Amino acid sequence: MSSATEPLPGTSDFWEPEVLEWRKLEATARDIFARYGYTELRVPVFERTEVFVRGLGNETDVVQKEMYTFQDRGGRSLTLRPEGTAGVMRAIANRGLATGEECRVFYMGPMFRGERPAQGRRRQFHQVGCEAVGCSSPWMDAEVIAMLVHFLDELGLKGARVRINSRGLPADRPAVAEALRAYFQPHLAEMCEDCRRRFDTNVWRMLDCKVAACHALAENAPRITDLLGDESKAFFASVCAGLDALGVPYELDPRLVRGLDYYVHTVFELTHSGLGAQNAIAGGGRYELQLPGLRNPIPGVGFAAGMERLLIVRDALGVTPPPAPVPKVYLASLGDAALAFNTSFAAKLRHAGISAAIDYDAKSMKSQMRAADRMKAEYVIVIGDSELEAQSAKLKHMADGREIEVKLSLDGVLAALAADAETK
Ligand code: HAM
Questions:
Q1: CA of 83 to the centre of ligand 1 (A)
Q2: 213 near 191, Cβ under 8 Å?
Q3: What is d(CA 199, CA 181) in angstroms, rounded to the nearest whole number?
Q4: Which of 155, 256, 359, 397 is least buried, going by the fewest C-beta atoms within 10 A?
Q5: Ligand 1 pocket, 242 CB below 6 A?
Q6: Rounded mean pLDDT of 178-197?
Q7: What is the pLDDT at residue 60?
Q8: Whose CA is nearest to atom 21 of ligand 1?
């Protein structure tokens, strides 16, 4: 290994058996989300920069500091997607939604943010997310959160905390912003540079600053939900009632605002102690997303979970990883004629659905058996001149040393494997 072959900071290569965990995660997502009527959507990993600037909001940390933006040869400004929602909404808008039509999609794949790399904080990370577009009922917000919890349960990730809050409707915003400014104004000198900037540009974000002094002040800030209008309060109450009806435990967090500006009404975040400092495993909410070239924003509700973070929590909880696949049969060869036979016999087995292995470099029988052990092959067949002549050989079960006489044909070996599986 040298620095020239290492992946860039904040990016990773994934190998088996870790990849098996990813596949399990992906399969579970597909299974669970399909039960709720979501279909899979795959969108490009880069978009026109405007899609994210308009979609996420110019004042968000993601847009201000974290996007991988570049010019293509035609001089267009493009950006590697820092999250999934904006691109997914662009795709849905491009297809066109008849008025009143609903669309529910899920997606998974790499996202890119230029953050300082740490455990659970990557520059290329992966999200699995869902978006429900075209339904304005608070029951949908509750169902989306319940579906996320269901997904985590299915993965064996017990112990996640669901925190929810409401940002209300855009019409409520001026009153909330005014109350927050009145509260923070006398303390500005004690706050970080980002917060002093946010005071003018996006005072809501002062509530979720991670700097200790700012965080302590935010603890005593006015509660957003107290300042909202009646319609927003009623909507939020219905979301909570929906969660109660679905049996999803949650905590009210009056200071949760989330980092993206497209949210209206419900916002939520799921945290887990197994993650340490980067403790958000998933987040989402109801939104109205602006896209370049569209007069009206697109309304929806959804979430995204960080796949690396889900796997860190799985690890911390000691959830048993899926078993690594092993060769069913290892074919050992005594001599050149046997090697030629085994090479084509292995191909026949593989075409018949049986995983078969040969170590072409291992010459002696001892080193071939060592290879079979290393690969954890379930059975070994040793073929030499006498087996070829007799057209029969011994199928050895590696775990208990049992030997079964088999005819040296595809049907003979398949029948022996099937019969042996029956006896277990
Ligand atoms: P987000 O909170 O920015 O929301 O990201 C969702 C999740 O992605 C986080 O909870 C975290 O698990 C993971 N994540 C974010 N940044 C990183 C990183 N640098 N390294 C590793 N994991 C990370 C969104 O992206 C919204 N699009 C969610 C949404 C969907 N809202 C509505 N619909």
A1: 7
A2: yes
A3: 7
A4: 397
A5: no
A6: 92
A7: 85
A8: 121
Å from CA of 259 to ligand 1 middle: 9
Strand 103-112's sheet: what is its strand order?
Answer: 39-40, 103-112, 124-133, 298-306, 280-289, 263-271, 161-166, 251-252
Which atom in ligand 1 lies closest to the alpha carbon of residue 282? 10
Nearest-atom index, ligand 1, CA of 302: 33
Tokens of 270: 């799921």
- 0.90 exceeded by pTM: yes
In which element (H, E) is residue 110 found? strand 103-112
Of 140, 145, 264, 309, the residue with max ligand 1 atoms within 8 A of its CB, to mutate for a pocket test, comes to 309
Rounded to 10 deg, the angle between the 138-154 and 230-246 helix axes is 40
115 lines ligand 1 (CB under 6 A): yes
- For residue 66, give the ligand 1 atom closest to its CA: 19
pLDDT, mean over the chain:
94
Q: Does 424 score more than 80 pLDDT?
A: no
Q: What pLDDT shows up at residue 277?
A: 67
Q: Ligand 1 within 6 A of 131 CB?
A: yes
In tens, the pLDDT along 96-133 reads 876 668 899 999 999 999 999 998 999 999 999 999 99
Angle between helices 193-201 and 173-184 (to 10 degrees): 140
Rounded distance between C-alpha atoms, residue 243 and residue 411, angstroms? 56
For a ligand 1 pocket test, name from 107, 127, 130, 272 the mutation site with the most ligand atoms within 8 angstroms of its C-beta: 127
| Radius of gyration over every alpha carbon of the chain, rounded to an integer in angstroms | 28
Whether 327 lines ligand 1, by a CB cut-off of 6 Å, is: no
Q: What is the mean pLDDT of residues 198-206?
A: 88
At 273, the pLDDT band (50, 70, 90 cuts) reads confident
Burial of 211 (0-12, 13-18, 19+ CB in 10 A): middle
Cα–Cα distance between 280 and 269 in angstroms, integer? Answer: 7
